[in-house]
Structures are given as structure tokens and as C-alpha cells.
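Thread: Modeling a multi-component assembly for a lab meeting

Hi all, long-time lurker, first post. My supervisor asked me to bring a structural picture of a complex we are working on to next week's group meeting, and I have zero experience with this. I have the sequence lines for every component (385 residues in total). Could someone generate the structure of the whole assembly? Inputs are pasted exactly as I received them:
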Amino acid sequence: MTPCTHLSDRMPEVALGRGGWTLEEERHLAGCEDCRAEWALVTAGGRVGAALPTLDAARVAAGVLERIRHGRVRARRKASRMAALTGLAAAAMVALAVWANRGGRSAVPAGSGLPAPAPVAASPSESVPEPAPRSSPTPSVARGSVAPTIDLPMPELDSLPAEALDSILTVLDEPLAQVGADDQQPDDSGDRELEQMLAGMEG
Amino acid sequence: MSATPTPDPPTDAALAAAYRQGHQPAATELVRRHAGALGRFLYASGAAAADVDDLVQEAFFRAFRSLASWRAEGSIRSWLFTIGGNLLRDEFRKAKGRRMLPLGDRDLADHADPQGDLVASEAEQRLREGLARLPRLQREVFLRRVQQGSAYEEIAAALGTTPGAARVHYHHAVKRLKELIG
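Re: Modeling a multi-component assembly
Sure thing. I ran the full set together rather than chain by chain. Output:
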């Protein structure tokens, strides 16, 4: 190790007051320009920031601890929210699974504009409310509210091919006005046809 | 009449353990021991004087939040310097190239020898400008050496390098600073 390297290694220690130069080191320092320049840098570097105002340790610590407390409270709240959301999601999954197992499927697509299907009486003695007329859908349906659904067993549909089922669903999805556009309504009948109908009814 | 022996002050490791067990005055004592040195390190590394307080608080916040990860074989001050250095690097990245703010009047020392302090302050400013132009590793090794007197082994452990490489960084820093300032 050269005297310059040795002196360089000792400089921080001496600059921070943790030791002193030996006579030999002092002599080298006095005669070596490079070492003197480095010594000036080391002493100046050690002093950088010495004029900064003293930090209030109690205030800094209080601020830090307060932030940590806040962080813990926030973390707890977040964990509670996550637990609640997880619970809700699990409940929704269970409900969905139960619904799927029952084979439930809405008979009328929501928002299709069709009135809700009439509830089917379990026995002939039960009264069945009048279905809403087709030409005047109930206001609730017209506003797009979800119609109450009911499971209707329709075994006749089971034998239909997929294309036929698709066309039925397409018709169900069409607006009412379009569905009945080609049907001949009594209002459109001619006078002669009306007379024939009346004659038929009167016998 | 014999003097009552004063008990040794608790070590940093003991204070850290006490804080982990919920003893908050231990945290205050750790801040009291290291905040000043950390502030000077951050300032010398290029932080504006007005930002030092906030940066020190942020560094301690991060340190206390992850105190469990502190390996007690290294000094807590060295660990704080590493956190502070990372924090400052993030700040520099956010500021996109703003590395130093010019010192204002409030940064000048208010001592009995204003002329001498002014000269010292000018030298200090030049040194800060020189330090700001060094690569990060060179700057950190130099400051850890001259401000803390840390051994190359400790610096190398803190910065994830070897003692030999830390020594080389230090000598490169000295050489460049001589060129920039001298």
C-alpha cells in the first residue's frame, strides 16, 4: 500500500475526529499535493449540510407514527370491504348454482317488450288473473322493468330442431308491432267479410 | 463516594425490537439518533433544503413500516441511507432531470463570521454541484465514507457490491470531484 492509499483510507476517520495523524502521515500530507486536495474534499464533504436547521425528532417521529397508524386503519377497512365483497360474490355464485340446477330460464327475455306471461294455476279451483291485453302492454313492462318469470314445462319444444327454436326466439325478441304486422285483424276486414262473420255467428 | 454508573444506552437493534413490540418512544429515539445524519446525506445527495424534512419523514415511515425486514447485522443508519437514496432517486425520476435546486438565502448559515460562512457555503455549493454530476454509486460511496466514516465492507453490503468495487467507486469519485471543483 502506497503512502497516498494509506492516507486516503485514514482520511474519513481523521476528518470525523475519530483519530489523528501520525507525524509521518502529517509529513506526507504536507508534501503531497494530491493528498492535500483529497483531504480538502473529504473535510468539505463531511461538512455538507451541517448548516441545515436541526430536525425536530419528536415531530418527525410523531408524523411517522401517525401515518403508520392511519395506514393500518386503512388496511383494516380495506380488508373488511374485501371480505364483504367476497361474501357477496360467494352468495351470488350459490344463488346462480341453485337457479341453474332447477333448470330455470326466463320464459320471456327481459326487456323484450312482451307482457309477463300469465301465471299458471296449480289447480282448476284457483283463480287466474286476467292477462293484460296484447295491444296495451302494462306500463311497467313498457318501461323495461323485468317481468316476473315462471317455469313453464313445454315438452313439445323438446322435439324441435335448433333452427326452429332459434326462429321462435327471434320472433319473441321482435317488437310487438312487427310480430303482428302480417296478421289480418278484425279491424282490417272488409264490410263483406264482417257481414259473413256476423251471419255465421247468427246461424 | 463513588459515582453511580450510568446504564449503557440501548442499541439500535434493541430499540428496533422494542418498537416492533409496540414501544413507540423507541421509534422517537431512533429518529433522534439518525434523522440529522440522514438529512445531511440527502441534502448532500442533491435534495433541496426545503425538501429534506419531508424526505427524512418519508424514509423513516418506510423504514418503520418494514422494520421486520431489517437485518440486524448491518447498521440501521446504513439501511436508512439506502432507503433515503432510493427515495431520492424516485424523486429525481419524478422530477425528470431536476437534480438540484439553487440554494437560497435561507440556506446560508447564520453564524458570527458571515464572510467565512459565505466562502464555506460557496465551496459547499460547488461540492454539491459536483456530487450531483457523479454516478449514483460513486456519490453514495463517497458520502458514506466522508460523512459516516463507514468501512468499505459495510458500504459494499449496503449497496450490494464488493468492498473492492466500493473502494474503486470512492477513488473514481474523488478523482472526478477534484476535476470538477479544483
